[in-house]
Structure prediction request, 696 residues.
Amino acid sequence: MSDIQSKPVISMAGVTKSFGLNQVLKGVSLDVAKGQVVAIIGPSGSGKTTLLRCINFLEEYDGGSIKIEGIEVGYKDAVGERRRRSDRDLAKLRGDAAMVFQQFNLFPHLTATQNVMLGLVKSRGKSKSEARQIAHRWLNRVGLSDKFDAMPSQLSGGQQQRVGIARAVAMEPKVLLLDEITSSLDPELVGEVLAVVKELAVEGRTMILVTHEMDFAKEVADRVVFTDQGHIMVDAPPATMFNEQPNDRLRAFLSRFGSFRH
Amino acid sequence: MGNYHFNFAIVWRYADKLFNGLLLSIELATLTIAIGMLIGLILALIELDGPRWARPLIRAYVEFVRNVPLLLLVYLIFYGIPSAVDLEYDATTSFVVTLSIYSGAYLVEILRAGLAAVPLGLVEAGKAIGLTPFGVLCYVRFPMALRIALPSLSNTYVSLFKDTSIASAIAVPELAYGMRWIEIQTFRTMEVYLLATPIYLLTSYAILMLLRLVERRYAITR
Amino acid sequence: MTIFLQTLPFLLDGLLTTLLVAGSVVLIAIVLGIPAGCALVFGPFWVKVPLRLYADFVRGVPILVLLYFVYYGLPAVQVNLSSMTAAVVALTAFKTAQIIEITRGAFQSIPTGQTDAAKSIGLGLMDRFVQVLAPQAVRRFLPPFINSLVDTVKGSSLVSLLGIVDLMLSLQQVIGRTHVALPLYLMGALMYFSINFPLSVLSRRLEKRFIY
Prediction:
């Protein structure tokens, strides 16, 4: 938990996004400072995953701007006109907003170590031996020191997700994006993954997580953001968000999660 | 292109050969898939619920038919069997028998997969409302299996339609034979093919589209 | 029994021709079809549409009609091909369309999450293709491809109708001479079976092995 500093790592202003006729993001603005952990909660379809995916340009946003440390994601201002960045530019920038996925998305033909190494070698330009050292270090950190050469099919869901986290964090990203990373896990495996995320938060990493784990959001986040129908409805510290529940729709949403019923 | 003068008029005079040939091809395909499904259904049921000693026999049938060229099967049944056994039949009958046996082998696989994919809960529900095993089969398992297998069945039907062209090798007057016939009579090879090839394409496409409509209404996809 | 031994040399010659035809067709079709399939998946609109049309067109026509067209139809416009060339051209056109389809299926069955994950660790298009997508596509390509080889060998039997002395035609010639139809047809069937069955089995084994 750290103080708000002057230059935000992520600044989003008026972001809009439509899928066909359906406008999913209707003008979202959000700043995230260095070292902050922001949790995004909200009902399905409210746009929270889309928002996350716009930050690393997995989805192309239509209007507004998203900047990582001042650099516009996905587009560059060439003589006042906005043009889509080339694939090579995008690739370099994406490593700065590494993502951990709900479905893990580990590369099934590579070992755990190779999964973590790939981005380091191909995007960060590290040598293979250096990348391997870094990969092993991170796999140790997430508690998988005996699984260096395991294939994803040999790992449990919780283990796979921890590899996914290692893979993302090894890139030393400016911000870590976590997209409902425990939603696909059996309940007994959720704890081990959240423990890793908590450690990373305590270390001071900038993170944005979309989650349904309200208890976890309360424990780890500096700020909680509630989205609904493409807007940010509430942006508050966890205490305010969960205890006072200053919004009717928020109240209705939270009432579905037993422990927060008012 | 040289000195070739296209002359569609001559070819057009014999268009009825193409038209009748097309009809026959469609009839052959339809008859075959009906018989083939009967064979396939019976064998699939035996393989799923029947005696264990029957399974390798069915396997042998399927593997044999699927790994041997259709043309060879056609000759085998049309020329081979009458030479060894005292049986006589005309080319069309022979071809229907051959193609039915051929399609049966593919349909066993398709129907077996379809039957196996019927959720157990539905079968139990059928029993729970007092249906006999045969009743469950007729009213629950078969209709469901059919709907699940509909896309595969559509593709098989279109394939069979194209396979009817092989019947031309034993002078069955279907579409491909009609094409060759006109070409031999008129020497207008290019025109025949330019006319007739789209017939196959359009018919295949039309059948496929019709079946897609049926699929939309009835098929179940996971 | 002696019939079988006497006729075997002729049949083996035919078999060789069959394998030669099928083999050439497969090789050329791979060289043409795999890049075309990749272009169909990754290429721009003006590349995708003609390839799509080609694949659908060729596969909507029976192979026999294709063979007749190339061998009998083309001479009318001064393109005279020998029976062997015509056969290979027609069969290759068909097989290439098949391979384009298999390649397309191989790439499109890879979950989109793989591309997302590759993008998110900073890999560009070339790296995504080589490091992440192609390895997974190969494993999805091989089982249906090997299965399709069975179709090619079976389809090659149609060249007998063009007068090429493959296994099918040599079988008929031998039967014509000896008048022993059924046993020889069965023997011919066995010979085709002995090539195709191992391929079928291999394809199924590979399919099981490559399930992730």
